[in-house]
Amino acid sequence: MLSTQQFATVKEWLTDRYDNFSVPPAFRYRVKGTDQDTPSIEFMQPPRINILATSSDEWFFQNLAQEDSTGGFLARWMIVRADGPRRDVAIPLVPDPSLIAPLAARLTQIAQLKGEADLLAIQPNYEKWYTDTKRRFESQPNRALAMAYFNRHRGHILKLALVFEVSQSGTLKVSTAAWERAVEFAGQIEKCIFDMLPTGMSAAGYDLQKIEDRIRQAGPKGISQNDLTRGFQAMNPKDREQKVNTLIDAGRIYRGADSTGGRPKTWYRHADFHQGEA
Fold first, then answer.
1. Are 182 and 155 in contact (CB under 8 A)?
2. Is the distance from CB of 160 to CB of 83 less than 8 angstroms?
3. Mean pLDDT, to the nearest integer, of 48-65?
4. What's 88's DSSP letter?
5. Helix 143-169 × helix 123-138 angle, to 10°
6. How far, in Å, CA of 239 to CA of 222, rounded?
């Protein structure tokens, strides 16, 4: 919805609020002179915005444009893919009521914290992490897109370290233990980013990856054109053929045909398994 006409400039406005300590001007996103006009939104102090959201891969990528990344909007999020071991929970456990009081006490303590974070103890660790991590992002095939994420990832890890420290000690002096927890969590985020970068962070790129993954999953024998078509029959035939040709031109998949005495049987094989057959 943020990309539609009625919400024009809202995405940019939200992006500008990130780490901005200035009081923004009043804001209105719909003024037509009717009863549908929105009231003016006025701020007395800099707004701090935290957004927690969940999505499936399908919905996420189908509503994504590469500009969301290169423009800085999506890179300001910490993206975590829930790819852990499968868990089946038929009946959720009842929450432990004895944990409510200590949690409330710690949150009250946290709310009273003032001042800046003390990062002195982890500064040498951060400097090494920064250099090593930047090299990993720079080595990605789509370097420009990867660096858009690194430019925010390098700050996210410090925020994570502070969050972990506050949660475990209730102080702003970040310890090595909190830093190590942040490095572990940031590693999960980094893996997620690298797994998603081949899509170009766009709907079209995601469709290409789905087709490529399906052909890769077929293994050395490849997949017949009929099976591939059935797997993506909801896709517009012209678009599907165009995406297949794009993957062929990029050397990601290969197309061949076997003689069956009648009409040749067309197949596709992923580059990981292709041995140069025609």
1. no
2. no
3. 86
4. -
5. 150
6. 21
Which backbone phi and psi does 143 adopt, to 5 degrees? -60, -45
The domain segmentation of the chain, as residue ranges, is 1-49, 54-80+110-201, 203-270
For 187, other C-beta atoms within 10 Å of its C-beta total 12
Residue 229 in contact with residue 91, Cβ under 8 Å?
no
Does the pTM of the predicted model rise above 0.85? Answer: no
> What CATH class is the domain 203-270?
mainly alpha
> Using CA atoms, how far apart are residues 269 and 247, in angstroms rounded to an integer?
11
Letter string b/e over residues 72-95, b meaning 16 or more CB atoms within 10 A of that residue's CB: bbbbbbbeeeeeeeeeeeeeeeee
Q: Say yes or no to pLDDT of 172 above 90.
A: yes
Burial (CB count <10 Å: 0-12, 13-18, 19+), residue 176: exposed
Helix ranges (DSSP H) in 22-122? 57-62, 67-70, 100-111
